[in-house]
Amino acid sequence: MPQNPTDVKVHDEFWRPKVAYGMATMCLLLGLAIGYLLRGSQSPAVPSATADRVISKSQPDGARQMPSLERMKAMADKQVEALLAQLNREPKNKDLVLRIAYFYKSAHQFKDAAGYFGRALELDPKNVAMQTEKASCLYYDGDMDGALSALQASLKLNPTDPNSLFNLGVIRWKGKQDAPGAIAAWKELLKTNPKLDKKPIVEQMIAEAQDAARNGRPTEPTSTERS
After folding, report:
1. To which H or E segment does residue 185 belong?
2. Tens-place pLDDT, residues 85-142
3. Rounded distance, CA 173 to CA 170, Å?
4. Which of the four, 8, 32, 103, 130, has the lowest number of CB atoms within 10 Å?
5. CA nearest 158: which of 192, 115, 195?
6. Which residues make Cβ contacts (< 8 Å) with residue 167, sequence separation at least 6?
7. CA angle (88 as vertex; 87, 89 as ends), nearest 5
8. Given CA atoms 122, 125, 127, 133 in this order, what sign does their dihedral have?
9. What was the pLDDT predicted at 168?
10. CB 132 within 8 A of CB 164
């Protein structure tokens, strides 16, 4: 785990809204490849790996199947008990709030996670990375409008933030079937971040969205978008 909270690198996996983790085939475009999608590039160090180990240890030896969402929530609730007790004593401890948020996110309890990211934002309202995390959880919970609102809030703070612009395009396209809006966000991303190392991939996404818009096709994940 990074020693400095801002050193953490993004390595999430992604799911369709309201679809269980095991059914996730969409991988919302480039989350692993770019490291932007639905996760702030400066997100604080988090215990997601710890939560994943807790889930893994709960399974019998050799078991490969993930536990149910209900079981994952129960495990997350158990794991954050001590943190919540500490939070009652230190209600303004932002790092503590974020640890709880990431435990719930790792357990795919996105509504709970979004609530704690929101609480962290009350303590640090100008934190763009946390707005991106909140948007992530709202998207996974099926709240497209809430996710877009969170991204718009982050762009008010930093209009050129690559994470927010990239995610804005993805959610507009895949969540709202708004290909023109997605294209506009991605073009702004390339315009304001000319040295973007994944520029060819973003350009490919723009081309696919343009093709979908011309042909009136529903938004379907392409091979680029699969894990």
Report:
1. helix 179-192
2. 999 999 999 999 999 999 889 888 999 999 999 999 999 999 999 999 999 899 999 9
3. 5
4. 32
5. 192
6. 36, 37, 38, 132, 135, 136, 151
7. 85
8. positive
9. 95
10. yes
Residue with tokens 């100008």: 126
CB-facing half-sphere around the CA of 120: CA atoms within 13 A:
25
Is residue 178 a contact partner of residue 210, using CB atoms and an 8 Å limit? no
Residue with tokens 């008990």: 81
DSSP secondary structure of 25-64:
--TTTTHHHHS-TTS-TTPPP--HHHHHHHHHHTSPTT--
Span 36-47, pLDDT tens digits: 454 554 444 444
Q: Which of 162, 223, 153, 212 is CA-nearest to residue 38? A: 162
DSSP string over 91-110:
TT-HHHHHHHHHHHHHTT-H
Extract the tokens encoding 128. Answer: 């763009």
Cβ 13 vs Cβ 207: under 8 Å? no
CB 129 within 8 A of CB 6: no
Token digits for 192? 């304001």
Chain position carrying tokens 């309202």: 125
| Full set of structural domains in the chain with CATH | 5-60+68-225 (1.25.40.10)
Helix (H) or strand (E) holding 83: helix 69-89
What residues have CB less than 8 Å from 214, skipping those under 6 apart?
none
